[in-house]
Write a structure and sequence with these properties.
Bound molecules: 5'-O-[(R)-(carboxyoxy)(hydroxy)phosphoryl]adenosine, zinc ion
Helix content: 40-55%
Largest sheet: 5 strands, mixed
CATH class of the largest domain: Alpha Beta
Strand content: 5-15%
CATH topology of the largest domain: Nucleotidyltransferase, domain 5
Shape: globular
CATH superfamily of the largest domain: ATPase, nucleotide binding domain
Length: 319
């Protein structure tokens, strides 16, 4: 993994053109470094996988181009993987492995979804955010509180010293009984509160951070609990960058335990975006197929619905 956090920090968010140009510069040196560290030779590679989407078109094209060029040079097949499928299957990279079927909570900067996972490639959408993603809500409120990009981890650190009960912030979907999520009200409520309070000292900022985290965690945990009960499942898998949040981990572990269930988190370094999860998803999907049976892919899909893609794949016979 090469992080572009410092490249984008000055702008308070990802600048698409800077991201893709930096990918062009970084990818091949990074690939060489990874190979050196793994003790493997490039000609041992039997399948090349890249992120096909969803994401920024320019950044996806850089990955697809390099993957395809590499596969052509190596004489091996190349496949495009759904970014969220990588996150979804990443807990299987660690021991003990979760057993299918399970409910997966995907929480990142761009997505907040609950999925039912019956096996590799067998995903059904149970609920999703109606507006902002949970990570996006954390990032935006962090900005309001004057924290550095990306705000999620900084917000979590600030929250450690705050009192979550000092401010009552909205948890809209818990009240409505709905099975989706909504986080845009959280950011607006914090913005309003900050305007009312005026200049904020460290303790006041910590209280707000703690309240935001508590509201976000409450809403995520309650919807997980409801979906597990509704699906009659006991296993919950948490994936995506927000899965690194310690308060969320602790709460979900407690919740699952109370239901007689179990919760799995990928190791922290696999929670945030990384290349290993994409390679691993491809290995799981294609391990049982000979190279001749794999159809090479070169396409990027900046907007790509995982549940719809899974439905389609199940209704079309393998070539
Ligand atoms: O999955 P990810 O690495 O990238 C994508 O969005 O695809 O997730 C990044 C998100 C950001 O919104 C970041 O602020 C959030 O995960 N995040 C956290 C924590 N670590 C990362 N949010 C809350 N607490 C954390 N410890
Ligand atoms: Zn991600």
């Amino acid at each position: 993994m090469h992080s572009q956090v410092r490249l984008h920090a000055d702008y308070g968010g990802v600048v698409p053109e800077l991201a893709s140009r930096d990918h062009v510069r970084r990818l091949l040196p990074l690939l060489r470094e990874v190979l050196r560290g793994s003790g493997r030779r490039i000609d041992e590679v039997s399948l090349v996988a890249y992120t096909r989407g969803p994401g920024l078109g320019g950044a996806l094209l850089v990955g697809a181009s390099i993957a395809s060029g590499l596969a052509l040079a190596l004489g091996c097949p190349v496949v495009g993987i759904h970014h969220l499928e990588g996150h979804l299957l990443s807990p299987l990279l660690a021991e003990p492995r979760p057993q299918f079927p399970f409910v997966a909570l995907l929480v990142s900067g761009g997505h907040t979804q609950l999925m039912r996972v019956d096996g590799v490639g067998r995903y059904a959408l149970l609920g999703e955010t109606q507006d902002d993603a949970a990570g996006e809500a954390f990032d935006k409120t962090a900005t309001v509180l004057g924290l550095e990009y990306p705000g999620g981890p900084a917000l979590a650190r600030l929250a450690e010293n705050g009192d979550p009960a000092r401010h009552a912030l909205p948890r809209p979907m818990i009240a409505s009984g709905d099975l989706d999520f909504s986080f845009s009200g959280l950011k607006t409520a914090v913005l309003t509160r900050v305007r009312e309070l005026g200049a904020l000292g460290e303790a006041a900022r910590a209280d707000l951070a703690a309240a935001v985290q508590a509201a976000g965690v409450d809403e995520l945990a309650e919807q997980c609990r409801r979906e597990l009960a509704r699906e009659g499942l006991e296993g919950l898998v948490v994936a995506g960058g927000v899965g690194a949040n310690a308060a969320l981990r602790e709460r979900l572990a407690r919740e699952a335990h109370a239901m007689g269930g179990e919760v799995w988190f990928p190791p922290l370094r696999l929670c945030t975006d990384n290349g290993a999860m994409i390679a691993f998803a491809a290995a799981l999907k294609y391990a049982d197929r000979g190279p001749e049976s794999i159809v090479d892919e070169f396409s990027v899909l900046p907007r790509w619905d995982l549940a719809a893609a899974a439905r389609e794949a199940q209704s079309t016979p393998r070539r």
